[in-house]
Structures are given as C-alpha cells and as structure tokens.
C-alpha cells in the first residue's frame, strides 16, 4: 500500500529504509523512525479502535503517551501485548498490530448498537439498573458486566521476555528531555554533578523535534537538540535514558523509571531484557515534563480524523505525515495557528482557522493572510460529519451575548483542535506536592516543594521557548548547587521565535444544537460526555472525586490528563462555584500504564519465591534427607534409614543426640551485627533483658516485644566487644527484626551512635549438641580454651576452625552440651563435611528440624510462632525472669502494664501428659475442663506442641491454658472426633529438670 499522506520530504525518518508492517492483517509500509501511529496516518488510516462504552469509531488523537483512543495489541513471540499506545509503539519490520474492543471487525462492530441505545445508558446507569431481582446479580448481571469490562485481550501464554532491575544514585535526576530538560541537564552536568536525564520518547528533544518557527543560538531547534544530546552523551557524569518513563515519585526523592529496552527491535538480542526498572535515589530532582494540549469539547468531537493541533504539527514536522489533505483548525489559543501555517507550507489546504476569540493577534492574522488561509473569529465547531472519518464540520458564530448562530459548514478530512495547554503536574503531585490555582494562567501549577525537587518550563506554566530554556537552565544549576555546592560556568542558550502565545478555553463550547441529544466528549476512552458530568452534578455529586467515580471521567489510562480540566470547568459551571473549589482528582502511580513484567522484574518462576539453601544442602541430598520448606529455606527435616518412617527416624536421632552427639545446620537463623558506641544502649531499649552489664565473651537469651507487650521474636545475643554484639533471631523473624531495628533507629532514636547490619547470608552456622559435642569439635578449634571453666555455657569467643576464622558459641537448644560454629559462608560446606565425618566416628548422628523440635519441647523451650501467637507476653510463657526489673524503658514496657495483660485468666504455658502415654495429641487441639463440653462453651486453651519423646518414654505436649500454672496435677480434656482424651497438667519441662546435662 502507498503512503498517500506522506510528505515528499522532511521529518526525522529514514526514507531509505522502508518497513513492512500489518494492522488488522492488512500489510502497509512505513519508514525507520516512524511510530505505528505516524505510519498508519501516512497510509491514510485514522480509524484505529472503538470506544469502551458506546463502541464509537475512534482515531488517533495525540502524538504522546496521553493517547486515549489508539490502544492496540501487538503480536510477538506467538502472543499479544494489549493496550499499547500506537503513539509510542515504534515501527519495526514485521510488526503485527491489531485493533481492540470490536467484534467481528473494526469496520463493522456489533457493539456499536450501544451508541443507538445511549439514551438508556446514561452516566451512572449501572448504579440504578442492576438492583432487581436480587438473584440476578450473581447469575446474570455480574457475569455480563465482567465479560464486557476491560480493554484488549490478555496474553494467553506465559511471558517469554526477561525484565531487569537496576538501582542507581545520582546528584540530579532530570525528568523530561524537552527544551527545559536539556537545559537543566546541561547546567547540572557543567558542575560535575552526576546527572540522569530520562524521557519517554525514543529521541531526546521533546517539542524541539517538531518546532520550525524558532532558532536556538542560530540553529534550528532540532539541530540544537541533537548537538546538546551529543554533548551530554560525551560527558562521563551524565546518563541518558531515552524510551524511559518516570512513572512513580516516592518518598525521599526515590523515583521509579521504566525503560523500554527492546520493544522497538525486530530481532532483539535474547540477552537483553525487554524492559528495565530503574530505582533511582536522587539528591535533587528537576521535573521538566512539559504540558499537554487540551481538547475542545464540542458535539461529535470524537470522530476519526480529529486530532490535537500539536499532534498534527508533530506528525508533519517529525514524521513527514499530513493529517489530511484539507484540514480545519479549531482553536482558542495562538499555538494552533502555527500548525495551520506548517501544514499550508507543506501543500495542505487549510479549510479555515476557526478561533473562538473575537480578536486575535495581528501578527497571526498577517501570516494567515499571506498564505490565503480563511480565518473565522468568534467561531466554534458545533458538530461534525462522517462516521469512520470526519468529512466536514458545522460552524457557529458566537455573539457578544454568548448566543450561537449557524455559520455554515465546511468540508474537511481532518480537524485539528486546541483548547490551550495543561501543565503536567502528575509527578509533582506524586511527590506529595500540593498544586495551586493560577487564575492568570487558568491552570493548576506546582506549589511548595515537599521534597528536593523543582519544576521547570511548561510543567509549571511557563511558555515561550526562550523563557523555557532559561528556566530549565536555572533549575538545573540550582539543583546541582544544592547537591554538590558548585555552580555552572556558562550561560543558557538563547532562542528567537516560538513565543508563548495567548488564549485557551475550559469546559464545553457553546452551540446551537439540542444539548440532550448530542455527545460532546470530555473523556474519550470512557465515553464520558459533557452532559454526563452535568447529570452527575444534578444527581448530587458535588465533589470532583464523586463526579469522577460516578461518570468515570479521569479514570482512563491517561488518568485524566486530557479530560480533567474540562471536566472541572463543566462541573464548576454546573455547581456555580469557582473552579478551584471543585477540587482536583489525585494523580497516582504509575504516570502511564506500566507492564507487570517491569514491576516483577526477575521475581517470577523460580525467582518469584527464591529457594534458599544451607551449606549442608547437597550433603543432605546425597544422604537421602527429607526436606521441609521454612519460609524460603529448604531445611533438613529428618534423615531416614532404610525402612524407617519419620517417627522411627526422629526417635533414633533423638536418642543418639541425648546419648552421644548430633550435628545440625542452623544457618537459617537470622544474624544481625549491632555495632557502635551506643550498641548496648540500643539493645537495652529493643529487648526486655539488660545488656549494659553483659561482659564481652558472654551471651544472653533475649526477648523482643512489640509496643503492645507481646512477644515477636527471641534469640541468643553474644557480646563480641564493648561496642559489638552478634544478635541471632528466629529463621522466620530475621527480616522483620532487622526492619524493626532500623525503624526505631531512624524514627525514634536517631541520636544513638549505632548501626545494624544483617549478616544472615554471611555466616554458616554448624551446631553440635550432646554429651560428646566438646570431643567432636576439639580437634579443629584453635585459639579457644574449650574447658568447662574457661568456656562455660552461654559463652562466645573468636578463634579459628581448621585455620578458618570462626565465632564459637557455647549455647544449647536441646538441654545438652552445645556449640555453634559460625564461619564465613564460603567455608560452611567444608566445616559441615568435616564435622559430619567426625560425628560419625563418635557414633553420633546428623539430625533435622523434626528432631530439633522434639528435643527442645522435652526441655520446655518455646518457639516463637508456635507457643506464641501474637498475643502472648513473657509472663504467659514463664519468662518473667527475662524482663529487666531495673530498666526504665524498653519496647513493650508500657504495653506490659496494661490491665488486661496482668489480669487473671490469661493463658499460660504448661505441659500435658496423656493418660495413655502412647497417644500423641494433635497440635492446635482445644483444651477443656470436661470431656464433653456444652455447645458454645469456651475452650480453656489449646495444644501448641505435641510429640513422642524417646527420652521420656512417652508422649509429651506443651499447651497454653487459662491460669495453667495453677492447674498443675489437675486433669483436663482434649475433645476429639473419636472421644475426649484425658490429660494431666504438668510443668513444661519433661527431661533433665535440674539442667545438669548442660554442663556435662
């Protein structure tokens, strides 16, 4: 197919490189540098989709990411990606694109019947229609609504592409590479500051790439932009990111960027990701996001062939594409006139310039007259003709009283419109900035800056090329000076031409048609009309947020960047309130639709929940281990011999540990290094126990509470030096404890001179438990005296294991003599294999988590999350001894004083012995006073742990029971489907109650 709307020359496309592509199966041609939108327009294709609600024909409206109509699906690798904006899809050879929201075809869409039924489908009809009969909601209404909802079809297959993630820091992040952004980046980088410049377009330059009526330092704007980009690219302190959208502005100048890496390539390198997520922490941010041209709201303003004037100019000057052969320009401001002039200079017939203003600048009139362009002032468009493409427009004359009378019609195959410009304040709003109304500008502009940010250029309501260049340079210099203390050395570029211009309109235009019958669209994607907004007001929606939800205006993929201001003005008039009092909707992340792949990055498949392995993992696999999943960790549960089930294997492991020695991999335990002059003070505040008096080389069991006074973690803490502690946490609580420590340090006690570092991944922990534990490690430990007097229980020392640096702890979770060898992780496998061989020589055993649970339960040691449930205090589990009585304060101290935490009737930790020693209780089973309690009777407690104990020769259980410590020796019951099980309440220690085995 030829390209009948392509200019003979001009544009920034490579006319020597033709590209073949298909749209809805029809093959067409474009050029290297085209977008799908520009190539379709070059081929005379304006109809690209159907609207969401009424299925009206829709065409390309804009040239940027705010495009509401031209949402397409693109096929690649056997599947399609839906809802891509044709204005941002770069053309490549073999591109396959399809239109959306139509059946059976784009030209004949059965859904268009909704347009005929539109009187029955007003705004908010779904709130009133699907009320009766009630049973129909689940069976009819909801299924039909859900089937009709959404745009495009989701992919059917797993995503074949790869997505990357990158963290970056910079002194100055400049968002937007138009004239203000390029100037800001130049100024900031002149100082030596580290600068990142990003822009969502494929080429950096923004509006300069389509500007023809100006010069910058004597150069054409396009040339100046090209030279500036080359200069920035040559600087080592500058990172340029085209095709990169800043979609989220978060706290503390944290900005998320989405880079499209390979979407524009026909045959990308498989080693490259499709998209890359940049997570940038910037000292200073310059937002140079520009502004968006505002549509005019007049009847039938949605026909294919109706474009924004700025978009028409972009397609002409940047892509060499004419919007039509005979074009009507409808405007309320000066800038659209330049689009008419550029089109006329390229051989396009301008049917007329219809300006709503009574008077326009003489200079514009003179230029129009020189090109023989007919100008109509005080003129509005009152309607359009055509179905699948505009073929003409109805014009109206606006009298001094505001009345509209017919001014005839005009034939055209394209209509360019401009209602003025709206500053892009989305990212500023995301930064928690509050916009302010500027009456002179007629727009909301950035107000105070809550973060280290400044807006520059058109996004803060400043127009005119020279003023924008100057403002961008000043913003970049100011940002760099704030970040580095240095100032730029050269002056900003000077532009002539491309003046700011005047004019603009808000709200719907007056017309002489029946307002109840015509559709003047405000939100194109959601088919919201001016009369819908007025209906919402009549229905009682007086807040713009309520109007938004009632009509869905501003809820499209552009988040209302095209529609908001017009909707606000219409609501303002309907409410008879000043526009600022109507309010403004919230701009949320992401700025533009962003793929799930970018958010997920590599967190998918096996990496969605990565499997973490201990140093003993492969050895365990080779020795027929049975694993269990503990969070992300693969932990050895038990090691069965031939013919053994779990119970037999665990019984054997328990017996050997108690009789000889056992080896256990404890590497999954959380480990945190707490270092600094105030380290002891910090732990005093975080844990219930006292720490200042703990001597270096000694350990102490620690309990951590939340503010409410409930146990959230526990672990052994060793003092390595006066200013250094080695803190252990539970496996599941490691991340939470670390985050809690950081939270308190940063928000409650920033004055403390201490820092915390997670070392969970840095240390492998090999534990030995049992009477022969000292004999097992003695041959390999150097520089540490292992004798009981020199290295008693709850000691820690630094030494070496076979020449490898280690921290050795004398601690136990079994009640036996215990040691834990902490070595750098890279040596973990060597230490494990060495000790496994030595333990085998001594007749010992390697054991897993199931045996560990039995051994600790025999001693009555709790596990946080098993004996505790988020409502348990230290006293509830018999650990009042762990609370520093002389401490003035610690996290949870005030919570412990609450009346309900010291009242009678709280559940307390006890032991349970079944009447039949062979019966093992079920964990979680309820505990009652009588065998068969009446329905509705509250349980006295529940079983937390239950096992068969080889050392006790019977079953044992731990439970939390109401006033349990007062019930020792009494009988309670465990109701079960097969009958109640009789149990005796006892203390929660079943083996070695005196604790003599700890010292051998």
Provide an overview of this structure.
The structure is a single chain. The chain has 1000 residues and is of the alpha+beta class. It has 25 helices and 51 strands. The strands form 13 sheets. Strands 8, 9, 11, 12, 13, 14 and 27 form a seven-stranded mixed sheet that branches. A seven-stranded mixed sheet has the order 41-42-43-44-40-34-45. A six-stranded antiparallel sheet has the order 47-48-49-46-51-50. A hairpin with a 4-residue loop joins strand 48 and strand 49 (954-962). Helix 18 packs across helix 23. The mean pLDDT is 94.
Give structural attributes.
single chain; 1000 residues; alpha+beta; 7-stranded mixed sheet; 28% strand
Low-confidence stretches: none
Strand content range: 25-35%
Provide the gyration radius in Å: 37 Å
Q: Largest sheet at a glance?
A: 7 strands, mixed
Count of DSSP helices? 25
The residue fraction in helices comes out at: 10-25%
Class from secondary-structure proportions? alpha+beta
């Amino acid at each position: 197919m030829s390209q009948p709307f392509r200019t003979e020359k001009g544009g920034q496309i490579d006319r020597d490189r033709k590209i073949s592509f298909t749209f809805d199966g029809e093959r067409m041609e474009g050029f290297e540098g085209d977008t799908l939108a520009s190539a379709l327009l070059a081929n005379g294709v304006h109809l690209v989709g159907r609207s969401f609600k009424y299925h009206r024909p829709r065409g390309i409206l804009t040239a940027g990411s705010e495009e509401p109509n031209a949402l397409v699906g693109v096929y690649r690798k056997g599947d399609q990606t839906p809802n891509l904006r044709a204005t941002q899809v770069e053309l490549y050879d073999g591109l396959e694109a399809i239109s959306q929201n139509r059946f059976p075809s784009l030209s004949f869409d059965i859904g268009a019947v909704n347009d005929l039924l539109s009187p029955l489908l007003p705004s908010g009809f779904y709130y009133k229609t699907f009320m009766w009969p009630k049973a129909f909601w689940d069976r009819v209404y909801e299924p039909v609504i859900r089937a009709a909802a959404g745009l495009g079809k989701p992919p059917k297959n797993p995503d074949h592409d790869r997505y990357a993630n990158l963290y970056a820091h910079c002194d100055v992040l400049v968002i937007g590479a138009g004239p203000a952004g390029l100037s800001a980046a130049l100024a900031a980088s002149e100082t030596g500051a580290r600068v990142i410049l990003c822009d969502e377009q494929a080429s950096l330059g923004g509006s300069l790439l389509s500007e023809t009526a100006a010069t910058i330092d004597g150069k054409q704007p396009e040339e100046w932009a090209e030279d500036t980009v080359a200069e920035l690219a040559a600087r080592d302190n500058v990172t340029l990111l085209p095709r990169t959208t800043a979609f989220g502005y978060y706290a503390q100048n944290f900005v998320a960027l989405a880079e499209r890496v390979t979407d524009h390539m026909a045959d990308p390198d498989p080693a490259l990701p499709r998209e890359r997520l940049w997570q940038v922490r910037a000292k200073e941010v310059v937002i140079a996001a520009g502004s968006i041209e505002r549509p005019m709201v007049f009847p039938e303003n949605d026909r294919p062939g109706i474009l924004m004037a700025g978009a028409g100019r972009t397609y002409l000057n940047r892509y060499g594409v004419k919007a039509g052969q005979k074009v009507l320009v409808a405007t309320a401001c000066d800038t659209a006139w330049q689009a008419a002039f550029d089109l006329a200079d390229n051989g396009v017939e301008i049917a007329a310039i219809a300006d709503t203003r009574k008077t326009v600048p003489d200079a514009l009139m003179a230029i129009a007259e020189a090109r023989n362009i007919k100008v109509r002032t005080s003129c509005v468009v009152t309607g359009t003709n055509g179905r699948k493409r505009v073929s003409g427009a109805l014009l109206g004359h606006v009298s001094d009283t505001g009345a509209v009378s017919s001014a005839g019609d005009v034939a055209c195959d394209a209509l360019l419109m401009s209602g003025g410009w709206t500053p892009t304040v989305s990212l500023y709003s995301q930064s928690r900035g509050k916009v302010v109304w500027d009456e002179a500008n007629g727009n909301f502009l950035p107000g105070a800056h809550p973060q280290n940010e400044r807006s520059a250029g058109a996004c803060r309501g400043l127009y005119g090329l020279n003023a924008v260049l100057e403002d961008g340079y000043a913003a970049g210099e100011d940002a760099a000076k704030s970040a580095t203390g240095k100032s730029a050395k050269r002056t900003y570029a000077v532009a002539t031409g491309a003046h700011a211009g005047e004019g603009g309109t808000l709200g719907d235009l007056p017309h002489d048609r029946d307002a109840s019958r015509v559709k003047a669209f405000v939100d194109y994607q959601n088919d919201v009309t001016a009369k819908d907004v007025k209906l919402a007001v009549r229905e009682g929606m007086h807040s713009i947020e309520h109007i938004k939800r009632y009509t869905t205006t501003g809820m499209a993929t552009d988040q209302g960047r095209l529609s908001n201001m017009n909707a606000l003005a219409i609501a303002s008039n309907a409410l008879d309130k000043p526009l600022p009092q109507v309010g403004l909707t919230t701009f949320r992340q992401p700025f533009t639709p962003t793929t799930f792949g970018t958010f997920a990055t590599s967190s998918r498949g096996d990496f969605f929940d990565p499997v973490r392995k201990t140093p003993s993992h492969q050895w365990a696999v080779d020795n027929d281990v049975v694993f269990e999943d503990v969070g992300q960790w693969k932990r050895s549960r038990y090691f069965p011999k031939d013919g053994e089930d779990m119970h037999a294997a665990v019984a054997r492991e328990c017996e050997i540990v108690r009789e000889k020695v056992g080896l256990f991999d404890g590497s999954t335990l959380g480990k945190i290094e707490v270092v600094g002059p105030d380290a002891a003070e910090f732990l005093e505040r975080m844990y219930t126990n006292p720490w200042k008096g703990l001597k270096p080389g000694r350990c102490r069991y620690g309990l951590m509470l939340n503010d409410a006074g409930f146990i959230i973690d526990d672990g052994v803490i060793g003092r390595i030096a006066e200013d250094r502690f080695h803190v252990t946490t539970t496996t599941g609580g490691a991340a939470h404890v670390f985050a809690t420590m950081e939270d308190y340090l940063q928000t409650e006690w920033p004055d403390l001179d201490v820092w915390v570092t997670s070392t969970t991944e840095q240390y492998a922990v090999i534990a030995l438990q049992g009477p022969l534990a000292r004999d097992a490690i003695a041959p390999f430990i150097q520089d540490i005296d292992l004798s009981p007097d020199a290295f008693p229980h709850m000691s820690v020392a630094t030494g070496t294991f076979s020449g490898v640096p280690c921290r050795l702890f004398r601690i136990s979770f079994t009640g036996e003599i215990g040691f834990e060898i902490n070595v750098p992780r890279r040596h973990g496998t060597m230490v494990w294999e060495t000790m496994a061989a030595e333990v085998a020589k001594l007749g010992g055993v390697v054991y897993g988590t199931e045996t560990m649970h039995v051994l600790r339960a025999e001693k009555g040691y709790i596990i946080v999350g098993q004996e505790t449930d988020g409502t348990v205090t230290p006293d509830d589990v018999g650990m009042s001894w762990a609370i520093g009585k002389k401490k003035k304060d610690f996290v949870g101290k005030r919570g412990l004083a609450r009346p309900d935490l010291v009242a009678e009737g709280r559940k307390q930790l006890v032991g349970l012995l079944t009447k039949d020693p062979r019966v093992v209780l079920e964990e979680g089973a309820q505990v009652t006073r009588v065998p068969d309690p009446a329905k509705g009777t509250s349980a006295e407690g529940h079983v937390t742990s239950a096992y068969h104990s080889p050392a006790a020769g019977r079953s044992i259980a731990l439970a939390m029971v109401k006033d349990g410590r007062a019930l020792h020796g009494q009988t309670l019951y465990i109701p079960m489907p097969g009958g109640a099980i009789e149990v005796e309440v006892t203390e929660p220690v079943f083996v070695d109650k005196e604790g003599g085995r700890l010292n051998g």
